[in-house]
Amino acid sequence: MSVFTSIDAKDVSKNLPLMDINMAVETNGAYHNRFSETMFQNLHPQLNTYNELFNNAVTMFSNRPCLAYRPYNPVFQTYPSSYKTLSYTQVQRARCYLGSGILYALYKNQFKYSEVHNKIDNHLENWANFGATDHSFILTIYSDNRYEWILTDLACVGYSITNTALYDTLGESSTEYILNVTKSPVVVCSADKIKKLKKLKSSGKAPELICIICMDNNVKSYTDYDLKLEVFSFQDIISLGKSHKLNQMPPTVNTIYTISFTSGTTSNPKGVILKNEQAVAANTFLSTTMKRVNKGKTLVFLPLAHIYERQTSAYALSCGYMLGFPKSKKSSDVLRDLIEDLKIYRPDYVSLVPRILNKLQSEVKSYLEKVDDFKLNQIIEQKIMNQKSFDGNKASTSNDFYPPYVKLRKRFGLEYVDWINTASAPANPATLEFLRASMNIGVRQLYGATETFGAISTTSEYDTSINSSGIISICTQFKLGENNELLVRGATVTPGYFEDPEETAKAFQDGWYSTGDVATVGKKGEITIIDRAKNFFKMSQGEYVSPERLENIYVSCNTEIESIFIHGKPTESFLIGFLSLKDDNKIPKTRKEKIELLKRINGSVQGINRLEKIQNVHVGTKLLADILTPTFKLKRKDAIVKFSELIDALYEEGPLLSSKM
């Protein structure tokens, strides 16, 4: 079902975003967007695959800049102050050369031997028949965000090649598992990943791997006969594609676009099957809700290996936006790197996650304490109050031009940013209110999952619904199941998990996908996520606690906290915490200092009751660095295992504060 059928595909953007979509209604036990009870699949019948969306963008925005990057100078170890760009026409040409070159290099590869390698030889004959069960060989992308990542993804889309992605925080065992379960014969990666891949190959843990394509052109093409592996530079593959160019092999709606592996804490990650159907429906949702910016720009900050950034980046490409990529050499300070890139690139919007917003709020508050400008604080407080008065109220006044207020935005790189998207976990409402007012920008809170190809609901930029994740997509329906678990269905929802029928069966109830999230529904049909069902724990008093909500509040209300893990037991009456502080010098060395720290941080938190305040704590720096996902979500099970002995010790020591504190 298409949103528009009586207009030309090129005119669709003139009618977006849609109006009258700011409410959901219930029909026969299921909630749908009030725009229509019908669940839509795409914007237009001619925009039915991701490939068609990008080709349409090339037709409409041929000379606009598409991808922007700052090339690193290894000699001087610096970045230029400006971005190099590739236009939509240049990207179209490059992706066709790249796709052709990949197919040619694999076709000529001398080390093919298995059934999956037969898929390479038969690709030219079979690509038109690929579907949800019969797919191409699987190409793997393995690097941080860079323009070659997007170029490779678009090349796969143009030639009906299914892809997947690796990222280091999965761990070596998961990398091995993904390469084996997908039987991936080719990995397109950055130079720093080659050694890891060759190690896996040499130990017999990636037997199907016969080709590596390096994104960095300082690596020359060669053949490793001992490992039966061919290695190419990115430029050499493009040159092969120029010499042996193939016409596009466009996918159908049922062609598997990607297999996105979740960064769960189980022994093996689950591979979520996402067809072009899901990719297009996810794009349709964002296209119908997000405002259009003429010649817009976005910064690709979050990992492309995760579906959230992949969804928003694909949407940006379909709109003719320019995608800017962060510097590749990063420091240990994620927020500082982000601010640097924001200042130089000046995007119209950027997609972030609550942990980054918490850090940003903390830094802004710390700065405000230092400058001690009464009028500046008054402007922010008044704006918070005014923005609460009704949905969509930006609360603009002449004070927006007060020089210290303008300087505040500029200091944190948000001078030109119109709005921020946040997803991946519920954000603290106080954080959203503060950032909207202090940075004078809109913030959209979205909700979704890998299994729904990212976001399926969103608030407005200046939404007054406390904790809300907004209104459901026109492509999706939802209802609340047992124990208020959110269940969803529609074109954005995965058909299942790759090579895992058992997990697929567990995930669905009569055609509804079980999200594992506990939710409530507001007066306008808006979704509010309470927490992951598995994250809740019961205290000995019988009270249930949502640790993620508390963690967000503690970080956003305390400028000295870098990150926190909060834990409780059903046999205990109090909560404990594991704190990473920003300053080593503030780590308590005595019991008395620890008590003072607890009093200080508990005194700052707002909106939680006495039982939800932590009563004992272990403190350090960078405590949680190795147990965060690429989107900065805490791997809670890993944290429990890592700190198991300390958890027991803290409970044995008992609460350090009185029950009244």
List the main descriptive attributes of the protein structure presented here.
661 residues, alpha/beta, Rossmann fold, GMP Synthetase, Chain A, domain 3, nine-stranded mixed β-sheet, eight-stranded mixed β-sheet, 20 helices, 29 strands, 21% strand, AMP-binding_CS, AMP-dep_synth/lig_dom, long-chain fatty acid-CoA ligase activity, ATP-binding, Acetyl-CoA synthetase-like protein
Q: What do these coordinates show?
A:
Keywords: ATP-binding, Nucleotide-binding. There is one protein chain. 34% of the residues lie in helices and 21% in strands. By secondary structure, the chain is an alpha/beta fold. Among the domains are: 75-279, Rossmann fold (3-Layer(aba) Sandwich); 542-653, ANL, C-terminal domain (GMP Synthetase, Chain A, domain 3). The strands form 5 sheets. A 9-stranded mixed sheet has the order 4-3-14-13-15-16-17-18-19, with helices on both faces. α9 crosses α10 and α13 packs across α15 (429-439). The longest helix has 20 residues, at 88-107.
Protein topology:
Elements: E1 24-27, E2 30-33, H1 50-60, E3 65-69, E4 84-87, H2 88-107, H3 115-121, H4 123-126, E5 138-142, H5 147-158, E6 162-166, H6 172-182, E7 186-189, H7 194-202, E8 211-214, E9 222-224, E10 229-233, H8 234-243, E11 256-261, E12 271-275, H9 276-289, E13 297-299, H10 307-318, E14 322-324, H11 334-345, E15 349-352, H12 354-371, H13 374-387, H14 403-411, E16 419-422, H15 429-439, E17 442-449, E18 454-458, E19 471-472, E20 476-480, E21 485-490, H16 501-507, E22 508-509, E23 512-521, E24 527-532, E25 537-538, E26 544-545, H17 547-557, E27 561-567, E28 575-581, H18 591-604, E29 614-620, H19 636-642, H20 644-653
Parallel strand pairs: 3-14, 5-6, 5-7, 6-11, 7-8, 8-10, 13-14, 13-15, 15-16, 16-17, 28-29
Antiparallel strand pairs: 1-2, 2-20, 3-4, 9-10, 11-12, 17-18, 18-19, 20-21, 21-23, 22-23, 23-24, 25-26, 27-28
Helix pairs in contact: 2-5, 2-8, 9-10, 12-15, 12-17, 13-15
